[in-house]
Write a structure and sequence with these properties.
α1 packs across α2, α2 crosses α3 and α10 packs across α11. The protein is built from 12 helices and 7 strands. The radius of gyration is 24 Å and the shape is elongated.
């Protein structure tokens, strides 16, 4: 019996784009002959993936899964929206989210190496799906939110099935208040985040590069003004910017919080609950955002 080494499997996978388990099987079936193994994979339709890899995959689905005090959001891309309506593709997206939730894996590359329920890895499952469905697919990103105590909620916009849609949000509230007190607020925050698309919880957690860029724009627009006036203009402009992009500074979209910021709404909920409530983390993925389509 031929001894199929990990190096042989890795080399064949790089040449064909097929899954690890399929490559191992092909080498076993062909006595370790790499060229024969390539032909074996081609006959099985499993080497198609490599030919698809150059195509732009900007459609697909965002999947969200929540369990207790943690939640995950993943984006699985395909070339066409038609494939996103495919039951097998939807199952794949759901399973990947479930794997992320179970493993606590918070990034796409690590998730690809995680064990998949049907065998092999998540990466193998995607490669196999490419071969079967016939479109390029990519696990573009994945993120996790969690708290030690509190509540995690989620929301799916343009839902096509449970936990699957075009925009996915998970938000984590840290608090000793019970789920009954936190669930309504967390749900409203998830809806707000989906609609308002904040970039950070507050200005202290906003990317410093974004603040520096905004400051430079404000200074450039007001070039030539006296230093004391320029400083006030810039400070005022940054406060306006924070209201646009920071969750706690944004005006709430909900009638329940009319004329209040999200921070004020959270503060009122904490007062009612009789204990502190903090927004610890959130994730918002919109399908295909930032992908350049040809």
């Amino acid at each position: 019996m031929t001894n199929v080494t990990a190096a042989m499997v890795k080399d064949l996978r790089e040449k064909t784009g097929a899954g690890m388990m399929d490559c191992k099987t092909a080498l076993g079936e062909t006595g370790g002959d790499a060229e024969a193994a390539i032909d074996w994979l081609r006959k099985k339709g499993l080497s198609k993936a490599a030919k698809k890899s150059g195509r732009v995959a900007a459609e697909g689905l965002v999947a969200v899964a929540v369990d207790g005090l943690q939640g995950v959001v993943i984006e699985l891309n395909s070339e066409t929206d038609f494939v996103a309506r495919n039951a097998d593709f939807q199952t794949l997206a759901k399973n990947i989210a479930a794997v992320a939730l179970k493993s606590g894996t918070a990034d796409a590359e690590s998730l690809k190496a995680a064990a998949y329920p049907a065998g092999g890895t998540v990466g193998d499952a995607i490669t196999n799906a490419i071969a079967v469905i016939g479109e390029n697919m990519t696990l573009r990103r994945a993120a996790r939110v969690h708290v030690g105590q509190g509540f995690v909620s989620h929301y799916i916009h343009n839902s096509v099935a449970e936990g699957l849609g075009k925009i996915g949000v998970a938000v984590a509230l840290e608090s000793s208040a019970g789920a009954q007190a936190l669930a309504p607020l967390a749900r409203l925050l998830a809806l707000h985040i989906a609609a308002a698309n904040p970039l950070a919880i507050d200005s202290t957690s906003l990317d410093p590069a974004l603040i520096a860029r905004e400051r430079a724009v404000l200074e450039g627009k007001n070039e030539g003004k006296p230093a004391d006036k320029l400083a006030k203009i810039v400070d005022s402009g940054l406060k306006t910017y924070f209201k646009e992009v920071c969750l706690l500074d944004q005006p709430s979209i909900h009638a329940e919080h009319a004329n209040k910021t999200i921070g004020q709404a959270v503060g009122e909920a904490a007062k009612t609950a009789g204990t502190a409530i903090g927004v610890k983390a959130f994730v918002r993925y919109a399908l295909g955002e930032g992908i350049e389509k040809k």
